[in-house]
Amino acid sequence: SRVLQSENASPRVSGMFYKATVQAVLLFGSETWSLSTTTMDRLEGFHIRAAWRMALVNKPRKDPTSGTWTYPPSEDALEEVGLHAIADYVQVRRQTIANFILNHPIFNFCVDGERKKRGTCPHHFWWEQPMDLDAASAIAIAVAANDESDGSDIE
After folding, report:
1. What count of other Cβ atoms lies within 10 Å of the Cβ of residue 155?
2. In this predicted model, what pLDDT tens digit does every residue of 26-41 receive, in sequence order?
3. Which of 8, 38, 40, 116 has the largest CB neighbor count within 10 A?
């Protein structure tokens, strides 16, 4: 962000750069992660700290007399740099994979498969994560109907 600040990039441009580089690496593979509340809070904290660093108006400020810090609402900082909550991005990624796996045999294989007991820790699997399979099914049907109405058959 210092390079972008030295080039006088706007907070929105900095936010787009963050999404394209940092967030892409940060959330790589998150479609299949089993995220606890603690882990999601840590990701969200990193995301908001990054937004505060990129913001011009909604930045944390230190009072020179008392030495205390004042933090603006995180929603304001996210809005200024053009970002949403990290949970929204994870949900979009999960929905993307739901659209893909819905019509592939691996989904039914995983859901119907037998769970192996390993120790005492409860395991959460990617297919148990929240995803809207009804929406994925509707999208697949709409795409198929659109392909048929185009008359463009791919062989």
Report:
1. 2
2. 999 888 888 889 999 9
3. 40
Nearest CA to 83 among 130, 141, 32, 43? 43
Task: Compute the distance between CA of residue 78 and CA of residue 109 in angstroms, rounded to an integer.
Answer: 40
User: CB atoms < 10 A from the CB of 80, how many?
Assistant: 22
Separation between Cα atoms, residue 96 and residue 17, nearest integer Å: 22
Is 0.90 surpassed by the pTM of this model? no
Paired tokens of 127? 């297919």
Phi, psi for residue 70 in degrees, rounded to 5 = -120, 125
Please name which of 24, 27, 69, 72 lies closest in space to residue 48, comparing C-alpha atoms.
72
Structure confidence at residue 131 as a pLDDT band (50, 70, 90): low
Q: For the chain, what is the radius of gyration of the CA atoms?
A: 21
